[in-house]
Amino acid sequence: MSVRVFLFAELKDMMGSHSIELDVGKGMSVEQVLCHALADHPQKKIWQGHVLYAVNEEQVTKDHIAQDGDVVALMPPMTGG
Amino acid sequence: MIILHHEGFMERDKKMGLITENPVSAQALKDLNLFPDCGATVTFEGVVRNHHEGKSVEKLRYESYWPMAEKTMRTLICDTQNEWPETRILAMHRVGELKVGEVAVAIVVWAPHRGEAFRACEAMINRIKKRVPVWKKEFYGDGSAAWVRCHHG
Asked: For residue B56, how many C-alpha atoms fall within 13 Å in the half-sphere facing its CB?
């Protein structure tokens, strides 16, 4: 199955892209999607510790299971205001 | 009652949204005069300042996950109004490039009395900073730039 991954702010700059399409295994959590998206990037572990997740524009916990066609947002902690 | 269901505001809301690239101003929201029955109005503006952690800041660039930011802003307004049921709240966040002195966030809270207006306004800005998917990048006087890291845990 495939998911669309959106990256924001520092994560977007680091990966050089705002949006990537990923083929992932069924039953994968959004945290596993993050690991898949960042592959063997040296900062993977750091981001794994504090990234926030949303699926189809709703915030979810790292254990949320992604479904085929989901839009998974990987977000640094918010810094608005 | 939820202010976003207010007929007058919905018309404006459709045009500009709560997350906008246009200038925002608490005074402009206050001037809508939506609630003449309220005896207290508390306003808050978050303004771009010219320094951060010892470095001089020339401008900021705000980026959002726009549809989620819009939805989250509405949810926070509803939740905060429910928590202080006599309040009516409007809040907007500007995105894009902002110069020093420009307003990034504007909040207005109307209430029959001041106590709940103050409390709801402080809660709103704290919640916006923590939960609305917006991020800021700082551009410094020495030509460098960096994404701001989270300080609210």
From this structure: 4
